[in-house]
Amino acid sequence: RTLHGTRPSPSFDAMALQLRKRQQDAIHRMLNLNVTRIVPLGEREAEETEVYKILVMDRHCFDVITPLVRVNELRRHGVTLHLRLDNERQPIHDVPAVYFVRPTAHNVARISADFAAGLYEAYHLNFSSSLPRPMLEDLAAGSVKANAAGKVAKVFDQYVDFVSLAEDIFSLAQKDAYVALNDPTAKDADVEAAVAEVVKGLLSVCATLGRVPIIRCPRGGAAEMVAQQLEKQLRDHVDARGSMFSDHAGAGSLSLGSREERPILCIFERNFDLAAALQHAWTYAPLVHDVLDMRLNRVDITQGSSALDAAAGKKSYDLEDNDPFWRANIDAQFPKVAEEVESELAAYKKAIAEVNAQTSLGDPSSDADMATNTQKLVSAVASLPELQERKKFIDKHTNIATALLGHIKNRGLDEYFALEEDLLAGKGDKTAVMGLLQATGRGTPEDKLRLAIIYAMTHSGGEDAMSPADAEALEGALRASGADAAALGFVQRMAKLNQSLAATTTNATGRRDDRATTTANPRGSESNLLDYAERLYGQSLSAVAKGVKSLLASDRQLAVARATEALMRNEPDSRECAEYAWYDAKAKATDGNPPPGAVGEGAPARDHALVFVMGGGNYLEAESVRAIARGDDAGGSGDGVGWESDARAVGRLGTTTTRRSVAYGSTEMLTGAEFVAQLGALGRKTGH
After folding, report:
1. Is 333 helix (H, G, I), strand (E, B) or coil?
2. DSSP string spanning 452-499?
3. ∠672-461-275 over CA atoms, to 5°?
4. Nearest CA among 338, 341, 339, 335 for reference residue 282
5. What is the C-alpha separation between 353 and 348, in angstroms, rounded?
6. What is the pLDDT of residues 386-401, one digit of tens each?
7. Alpha-carbon distance 377 to 382, whole Å?
8. Is the pLDDT of residue 630 over 80?
9. Do residues 205 and 19 lie in contact, with contact meaning Cβ atoms separated by under 8 Å?
10. How does DSSP assign 35-92, residue by residue?
11. Burial of residue 156, with CB atoms counted within 10 A of its CB: 0-12 exposed, 13-18 middle, 19 or more buried
């Protein structure tokens, strides 16, 4: 049995965490039978050295591998067939099989059944995380009973039990984690099991990264439970012989100046900023995820709106880092995206016209013209593949943007976004809110429920507290619109039982309000996207975007991003640095208090961070966290709040050119509708 740490340790790049790249490298090694193959640049590996094999996966590991390796890439690693563990499979006696599954009793039993059936020539068993000793013994017993022990080549603990959706976004793919962690009717054993699953996933993240992070989290609650258990497991691995971490005992430490650089892992619970999971978005990636239900970087779109179009099926698009338009516009506001689509289309048409002009023939009787024509034709033919690739990206994003525009028009998403921004900035309009919540208002029942919960959260105390009559009117409007008010009831109950939630919301509102004063009231603007859509929907996308470049512009920083930035700055006047718990598996065990000199005056800032949200995350929050790495301020307002513009931070870092890297992760990536469904499930469990 082999651990992840026996494989080549990755070098730590100061410029990026590169979590996705490291996981991808680990998967490639697994597909190559856990042997690192080095092929000289420009040369192809000899065919006789290729080992052809079958890949067998369970559902979870299929999701892990899908964003990392496409089907056509599997062939390059000798995989001729990939199958599901739970499906009926026929024997293929003359090829080895690579198994990639979670370490569960069910999967071990299925593998033992494969031993008994003698399905394959050899078995290379890879588990996504550590295989417990009892299951390892069951596996050994199954192989001996089937007389297949000699066919088991190796058993690997890969520690890759998470899904890398982008270079800076990952998910543990743990379904309904918010319910499991917040169910007041759950038994202690159930909550402990949910916490243990989170710890197991984060251990895989740390192992893949090859670094022991310093863990920071708010004190108390499930976040600190995870931090304590993760610190214990990390300490066990650091102290063990053959540690899986490349920085054990300081080996291979990244050095910036005279200090060792280690990432910090900031752990938050979803309730730290509940509103971020409910808000409607206005930027590209959050809209695609929330509105078009992007899954594993793939979005399905029905072409057209007629029944015939729907019957023809959906068209699927992959949105990956190798898509230049997606990479350039992932955080852009939707009107800007629409303009960019039109701009790219115009540039493509211009390039095509130039190619056509090049291919126009001169005088065929002239030798000089013949040579020139030949040269032009060669140049035109050489440019065609690149132009075809550009057209593919343009068509993809034209269809995606058109689909988004249809939802914006039909559901009034611009109105929801504007109202929610106002509410969170302390400028809520009760009349406008109730108008949208009515049955005649635009939007799905889930849209209305999300707005209602944000309204209730921002009016849960103080002078703006809702009266009993207002609360009853709110629930009545939701019921009339077909929404399940159980989610609203649960949030209201939680707010009453947990006053700290109300305090956090009030604090966040106060900080956000300072920035909101620099933005014009979007609903007061004559440039309303919906007005444009009513007149121009179906025409040029850029026409819809004209005059609305700044529509609904948001420049506020979400609570998780703000807290993370404070922890990375590590400044003496930071409440987060002073009050958050500190756990370090490489230092002497403490009760969560930082060691002397680690926080405050003279303490080093941190350039690399992992941000993790228990109970579900989304692309809106990931976007806010990504802004820290870019050196943006809260939203690009240029008010001097950003890292690069802060003289104190520059002085602490010693340079303005230091590049930070931040990765965002969560138990699962949830759309707003999915999150209110979990809130509703909790509401029904508690009698709402």
Report:
1. strand
2. HHHHHHTTSSGGGPPPHHHHHHHHHHHHHTT--THHHHHHHHHHHH-H
3. 15
4. 335
5. 9
6. 888 889 999 999 999 9
7. 8
8. yes
9. yes
10. ------TT-PPPGGG---EEEEE-HHHHHHHTTT--HHHHGGGTEEEEEETTS----E
11. buried
Give residue 543's identity as a one-letter amino acid code.
A
**535-558 exposure pattern, b = at least 16 Cβ within 10 A, e = fewer:** ebbeeebbebbeebeebbbbbbbb
Cα(570)–Cα(564) distance, integer angstroms: 10
Distance CA 605, CA 522 (A): 37
Q: Are 212 and 252 in contact (CB under 8 A)?
A: no
- With contact defined as beta carbons under 8 Å apart, do 647 and 2 qualify? no
Q: For residue 348, count other CB atoms closer than 10 A to its CB.
A: 16
For the entire predicted model, the pTM comes to: 0.84
Output the DSSP codes for 365-391.
T-HHHHHHHHHHHHHHHHHHHHHHHHH
Helix (H) or strand (E) holding 166: strand 163-166
In the DSSP assignment, the letter for residue 442 is S
Environment class of residue 606 by beta-carbon count within 10 Å: exposed (0-12), middle (13-18) or buried (19+)? buried
Residues 101, 92: Cα–Cα separation, whole Å: 20
Largest CA distance in the chain: 92
Residues 6 or more apart whose Cβ sits within 8 Å of residue 650 = 644, 656
Given a contact cutoff of 8 angstroms between Cβ atoms, the answer to whether 599 and 577 are in contact is: yes
- Residue 500 neighbours by CB distance under 10 Å: 13
Q: Which two tokens stand for residue 685?
A: 């469990």
Going by their DSSP bridges, the two strands 53-57 and 92-101 should be labelled as parallel
Amino acid making up residue 424: L
Could you tell me whether strands 79-84 and 53-57 are parallel, antiparallel, or unpaired per DSSP bridges?
Answer: parallel
Q: Which two tokens stand for residue 450?
A: 């999300």
Dump pLDDT digits (tens) for 183-216: 988 999 999 999 999 999 999 999 999 999 999 9
Q: Shortest CA distance to 124 belongs to which of 60, 52, 76?
A: 52
| Three-state SS sequence of 632-650 | CCCCCCCCCCCCCCCHHHH
Measured in whole angstroms, the distance separating CA 288 from the mean position of its chain's CA atoms is: 13
**Does residue 425 sit in helix, strand or coil?**
coil
* Alpha-helix residue ranges (DSSP H) falling in 255-358: 284-292, 307-311, 324-329, 334-358
How many other CB atoms are there within 10 angstroms of residue 426's CB atom? 14
Please tell me the distance from the alpha carbon of residue 195 to that of residue 182, in angstroms, as a whole number. 11
Provide the CA 520 distance to its chain's centre, in angstroms.
Answer: 31
> Alpha-carbon distance 46 to 450, whole Å?
57
Q: Which residue has the higher pLDDT, 574 or 76?
A: 76
Residue 498 structure tokens: 């947990």
- Rounded CA gap, 561 and 576, in Å? 12
Task: Classify residue 658 as left (phi > 0), alpha (psi -120 to 50) or beta.
Answer: beta
Burial of 135 (0-12, 13-18, 19+ CB in 10 A): middle
For the stretch 665-681, pLDDT in tens is 999 999 999 999 999 99
Other residues' Cβ atoms within 10 Å of the Cβ of residue 243: 20
* Ramachandran angles phi, psi of 316, nearest 5°: -100, 140
